[in-house]
Amino acid sequence: MAGASQQQRVIVVGGGLAGLAAAVRITEGGIPVDLFSIVPVKRSHSVCAQGGINACNDIARQQGYSEHEHFDETIYGGDFLAHQPPVYEMAQMAPRIIDLLDRMGVPFNRTAEGQRDLRLFGGSLYKRTHFSGATTGQQLMYALDEQVRRAEAAGKVHKYEHWEFLRPVLDEMGACRGIVAQDLRTMQIRAFRADAVVMATGGCGLVFGQSTNSVMCTGAAASRCYQAGVKYANGEFIQVHPTAIPGADKLRLMSESARGEGGRVWVPGKKDASGAWGPHPQPGMDPRQIPDEDRYYFLEERYPAYGNIVPRDIATREIFNVCLEGMGVGGGRMVYLDLSFKPREELERKLGGIMEIYRKFVGEDPCEFPMKIFPGVHYSMGGLWTRYTPKSDLRGLEKGAPGNMMTNVEGLYAFGEVNYQYHGANRLGANALLSCIFDGLFNGESVVNYVRDNAHAPASAVEQGLYAGAEQIEGDKEKDLLARDGDQNVYEISAELGDEMTEASTVIKTGERLQRAIDKVAELRDRYRRIGVADASMWTNQALSFAKSVGDMIAIGDAILRGGMLREESRGSHYRADHPERNDERFLKSTIAEFDPQSKTASITFEDVEVGMVEPRKRTYGKIEPASGQKAGAKTEPAGASN
Amino acid sequence: MERHHFLLRRLHSLTGIVPIGLFLVMHLTTNSTILWGAFNTRIDGEGFDRRVGTFQKEVEFINELPLLLLIEITLWGAIAFHSVLGVYYATSGKGNTGAYRYQSNLRYSLQRWTGYLGFLFIVYHIATLRWGWSFLVPGGTEWSHHFAASTLAAALRGGDEGFTALGVAVSLFYFLGVTALVFHFANGLWTAAITWGLTVTVTAQKRWGYACTAIGAGLMVAGWASVVGFAALDPAEARQVEMSLHGEVPTDGGEAEARSMDVSSRGGDTIEHSGGQH
Amino acid sequence: MAAEASTGMNERVIRVRLKRQDGPDARPRWESFDVPVGTGSNVTSVLQWICAHPVTVEGKNTTPPVYDSGCLEEVCGSCTMVVNGRVRQACSALIDHYCPKDGDELTLEPMTKFPVVRDLSVDRSRLFSNLERMRAWVPVDGTYDLGAGPEETPEAQQTRYVLSTCMSCGCCLEACPQYTLETDEEAWDRAFVGAAVISQARYFNMHETGSSLKKVRLTELSGPGGVSDCGNAQNCVNVCPKEIPLTESIAAIGRQVTAHNIRQFFSGD
Predict the structure, then answer these.
(1) In the structure, what pLDDT confidence band is assigned to residue C8 with cuts at 50, 70 and 90?
(2) Are A138 and C7 a contacting pair at CB < 8 A?
(3) A573 & A626 share domain
C-alpha cells in the first residue's frame, strides 16, 4: 500500500540513460526519487549502444561546424518530422553534456595529446562523435549508474529493482499521482504515491520479434500508459539499423562506428558492358579472393559525398534492395561490411567491443574476413506524445518550464527513447545517447519545478482509495489472465506478432500489406483472449509477466500499423512503396494514436510539426542514380526515382 | 581479529618468508650435506665418510650459535602463528579444481593441502627429534646432536638394523613432508609478491613465477637429497665416523658403546667435544 | 521473444538437463528436455524454446523455467549461469560448441555463490551492495556546467577503459574459491568482496577526481573481506568474459593497500 510520507517524491520508471540522468538531476533539485526498473539498473538496454555521442567540439567548430549545424543535420536526418525547438536546445547543450560525462569519469578515447578523440558518424561530414571504444552506451550508463548509487547511499534515491510498472494512477482530474507496480519476485502488486512520474522505459523492438533490442524492450510500459490515455505519436517510425548480425535469438548490433571508422559495404558483383552491376557468377566465393573490380561498393557509388556514412534509413533500404535484386552474399539476405583491410591494432583499440561480439557470436575474425550483416529493427523514433514550452523565437526551450516533456497526462513525463521527440522520421547515429541524457538533465529540472509549484495537493494527501482502486484493477486483470486456461500459446502469439510486424512494417511497406497486418493483429488479439499461462506460481513467475506484456505489445503493434497505414507518403524510415514521395502538404505532421478502450484499437489523428528555423528541403544526401538500371531504393531523389 | 585484519594477514605472509622460509632454506642446505658433503675437501676425510663428517660439523656449528634457544622459540612461535592463521584462512575458502582446472587454481588448492601436511610433518619432526618424544619413533631412536647423522638415519629407518616397515613409512612421510613444505614455500613466495603488490602486471607475475620455480626446484633437490641421503645411510657406519670425530676409537662393537654413550650424554651432557677439529 | 531455437542449418536435437528450484528454500530437482537446435543456437535461445514448449522428456507438462537474460550480446551481465559445470554468460554459449552432435547433453545450473531466486535466476544484490561499500563513483560537484574533466593520456584511458567494461556479471565471483555463499545481508560488509569490486576500486582510484575517495576505499579494502582475502587462485581472470585483467587489479590494489597502511602506521591518521 502506498506510503504516506509528507515529503514530496518523484517516481522514475526505467533505469537506463534517461531514467538515471533524470534521477540524478531531480535529486540534485532536492526531491527524492523512487527508481523502478524490471532489471538491476546496471543491466538496462542503454548498455547496448556502441558507437558514440554527438556534440559540437572545438576541432569541428574550427572547420565550420557548430551547434546550429548539429541541429540542422538532426532535422535533415529526421526528414523534418521532428519539432525543432527541442532539437535546437539539445544541440546547444550537447557539448556541456560531454563535459559533464567527462567529469564523471567516462573513459572517452583520447588523442596522443590527451584530448577527447572524435570519429565520423552517419549523416555528418564532420567528426563530431565522442566515443569510448565501441561500448559508449555502457560507459555512459555506468557513469550515471555510479552517480545514482552515490545518491542512493546518501538516501536520496530508493531503487525498486525487479519491479515492473503496470499502470499510472490518475486522479479524477486526470493527473498522474503515482503508479501501480509489481514485485517480480513476490509478485506483490502495489501502488506507490508520487508527485510526478517520469517514464523512461525505452523502445519497443520486441514487438518486431527479432531486433537489436534487449529482451525487456517490449514497449509494454509505454503501451500501458497509452492504454491509460496517453497519446502515442509517430509509432510507424521504426529505425531499422542497416548493419546487424543475424542470430537465432536476436539480431546483434554492428555499430555504425564500423562505417564511421572506414568500414566499406559491398556485395560481390560483375559489371556488364554498359557499366551496370549484376550478380557475381560465383556468389558463394571466399570474399578475400574477390578482386576489387568485382566488389560493388554500392553506397559509395550511389552517394559519393557521404558514401558508407549515409543515414541509417537510406543505408538500410539500399542494402535491402541490393539483396532483393539478387546481389546479396550467396544470393541471400546478407551484404559485406568490410574492415579487414585496416590494421588490427587500430581496430582493436577503437572498435574492440564490436569486433569481439562478431568473433564470439559468428566465430569469424572481422580483422581477417568481411563481416556478413543485414538490417535489423533497432530504435523507435515514435513514442509517448510529449509537449514542451518553446522560447518565443522558437530557438530552444524555456528552461525549467514544467510542461517540458510532459505527456498529455498532467504530471506524467516521458524521457528518452520512450517519447517521440528529437529524431523525427529517422534518428541519426549517436544522437540517441544524447537525447536520453539531455531529457534527464535538461527536463529533469522541469519535473522539479512542476513538483515545487504544484497546483495540486501533494500526493501524500491524496486519499488512499485512489491507490487501493488502482491496485484492485491490476489484481483483477491478473486473476482474469491466470483463469483463462485456453489452448493458445502466448509465446507463439508473440512470435507471430513479431513476424507479421517485421514483414509488413519495417523497410518497405504498402497499404495493402499493412491492412493485412492490421487484420492479423486483430486475430492475435482475439487469440490472446484464449491463452493459457503455463505457470500459476506466485513466486518469480516470468511466464505471467511475459503473458501480460504480450497483450500490451499487441496494442502498440496495432497503433504502429494504423499510423503507417494512414501516412500515405515516404519519409525517413517510413517508406511506402505505393507512395514513394514525401508529401509535406499532407504529412508534415505528427501521427497521434489514441487508444479506444471499446475497440481496443488506435484512432489516428495528425498534428502539425513545429518547424521553427529550418524549412523543409529535399533530402537526397547527394544521391547519384545507379547506372545498373535497377529501381532506386528510396524516395531520396524524388525527381529521378522512376529512373 | 577484525580490527587487525590487515596486520594479521600481512604478518601471516611475512612469517612464511622470514623466519620460516629463511630457516627452511638454511635447514635444507645444512641437511643436504649428507650428500654433497662427499665433495667437502675442507674436512680431513682420511678413512671416514666425508658426508657424515660435514653434516656433523654443521650441526655442531648450529648448536654453538649464541641464543640458540631464543632462535628456536622464535621459530616455533612463528610456525605456530603461521599455521593457526593459515588453517583459519584456508578453511574460509572452498577449492573448486574439479570445475576450474587452471594451473593457478591447482596451486591454490595445493597450497592449502601442503600447508596441512607440512604442519603435521613439522610437528612430528620437532617433537621426535628435538623434544625427544621417542615413543613416536619406530625403534625408539632418540636424536643426538653429537651423533647427528647416525641417530637421524636410525629414526628414518626404524632402527639401527636396516629398514623396518614402519621405517619405510617414516621415510616416506619425510619425503612427502619435505616436498610439501618446499612447494608451499616456493608458491607462497610467488603469491606474496602479488599480495604485497610487487608484481602487478601479468608479465611481472610470470617472470617472478619462473624465479620461484627455480628457487623451488633448488630447494626440492636439496630436500630430496637430504631425505634420501639419510634414509640410505647405515647408522652403524655413520656412528663409527662420528665417534672418530669425537676422538674415540671406533670398535667393532661400537654400536653397543655408542648406545651407552648416548645414555650418558642424555644423563649429564658430559661428553667433551674432544674430537672437534677446532 | 523468438520461439525458434535455430537458424535452420545443421538441425539436430539435444538433451538439456536443467536444475530446477521453485524458490529460495525449495529443494532443487532435475528436469530434462529435448530441444531442436541448429547453427547459431545458444543457451538463451534453448531456454526460450523450452519456455515456449515446457514439456519434459517424460512427456510431463512443467512450468517454463525462470532465468535471467537481457541484451543477449554479452554487455549487460544478466544471463550468468553454470553451463556444463562452468560459469559463463548464457547468451554467448554457442550450442555448436557444447553439443555438436545429435543427442549431445547440456547441463544448466544456477550460480552457487548467490542465493537462488528461482530455477536459474539468482540474487546478486551483494555485488551491488559491495560496490556501494567501495564508494564506486566519482564524487562530482553536481551536473552544472563546470567545464571538461581532467585530461588523460591515451595509455591511462586504455587501462581505465578495460576496467570500465566490467558488467557486474559475477563470473569471477562464482569461480573464486575464496568467495562463498552468504545469505545474511548483515555479513556482506565483512565477507570477501571479490575480484570485480576490487577492480572497480582500482578503476576509481585511477581517476583524478575519483581518487579523492582513495583513502576510504583502501581502508575498506584493508579490512575483513578486503583484498587480503584473495587466495591468488586466479580463476577470476580465466573466466572473465570481458577479459579484464583482474589479477593485475588485485595486485595493484595490494600495492596501494600496502603503501596506504605503511603511510598510515607512520603518520598515525
Answers:
(1) low
(2) no
(3) no
C34 contacts C46 by C-beta, under 8 angstroms: no
Between positions 57 and 116 of C, the ones with CB within 8 A of B are 85-86
Per-residue pLDDT at B166 exceeds 80: yes
C264 in contact with B, Cβ within 8 Å: no
- Mean pLDDT for chain B? 88
Half-sphere exposure of B188 (CA within 13 A, CB side): 25
For chains C and A, having 3+ Cβ pairs within 8 Å is answered yes
Same domain, A624 and A553: no
Residue A249 is part of which domain span?
A: 242-377+620-640
CB A459 within 8 A of CB A177: yes
Residue in A167, A295, A312, A571 annotated catalytic: A312
Whichever domain contains A268, its CATH number is 3.90.700.10
Task: Map grid coordinates 526551450 to a residue.
Answer: A397
Chain A, 176-205: which have a CB under 8 Å from a chain C CB? 185
C244 interaction partners in chain B (CB closer than 8 Å): none
Q: Is residue A516 part of a domain?
A: yes
Model confidence pLDDT, tens digit, residues C35-69: 999 988 999 999 999 999 999 999 999 999 999 99
B19 cis-preceded (ω within 30 degrees of 0): yes
Is A175 a member of any domain? no
Instruction: Calculate the alpha carbon distances from A429 to A74, A235, A253 in Å.
Output: 10, 19, 12
pLDDT of residue A499: 96
Asked which of A2-6, A218-222, B59-63, C164-168 is least confident by mean pLDDT, the reply is A2-6
Distance from CA of C149 to the nearest CA of A (A): 4
8 Å CB contact of A99 and C167: no
Mean pLDDT of chain C: 95
Cell of C219: 581502508
Kind and range of the H or E run holding C172: helix C171-175
Tell me if A627 sits within 8 A of A298, measured CB to CB: no
Whole-number Å distance between alpha carbons of C269 and C264: 6
Our answer on whether A and B touch (3+ beta-carbon pairs < 8 Å) is: no
Domain shared by A581 and A630, yes or no: no
The mean per-residue pLDDT over the stretch A554-582 comes to 98
**Closest CA relative to residue A121, chosen from A35, A72, A55, A28:** A55
Distance from the C97 Cα atom to the nearest Cα atom in chain A, whole angstroms: 10
To the query of whether residue A312 is one of the catalytic residues in this protein, the response is: yes
The answer to whether the Cβ–Cβ distance between A143 and C138 falls below 8 Å is yes
**What sign results for the dihedral spanned by CA atoms B249, B251, B255, B257?**
negative
ipTM of this complex: 0.96
What fold, for C12-121? Answer: Ubiquitin-like (UB roll) (3.10.20)
Residue-wise pLDDT tens digits, A111-160 = 999 999 999 999 999 999 999 999 999 999 999 999 999 999 999 999 99
**Count of A-C CB contacts under 8 Å:** 214
pLDDT in tens, C189-228: 999 999 999 999 999 999 999 999 999 999 999 999 999 9
Predicted local distance difference test score (pLDDT) of residue B277: 37
Give tens-digit pLDDT for A252-289.
999 999 999 999 999 999 998 888 998 888 877 899 99
Q: Other C-beta atoms within 10 Å of A353: how many?
A: 24
Q: Is residue B20 part of a domain?
A: yes
Interface contact A100-C40, CB threshold 8 A: no
| A631 and A572, same domain (yes or no) | no
For residue range A597-643, what is the model confidence (pLDDT) as tens digits?
Answer: 999 999 999 999 999 899 999 999 999 875 544 443 333 333 333 33
B197 with C238: Cβ contact below 8 A? no
- State the pLDDT at residue A628: 47
Tell me the C-alpha distance between B100 and B102, whole Å: 6
Q: What confidence score (pLDDT) does residue B263 get?
A: 39
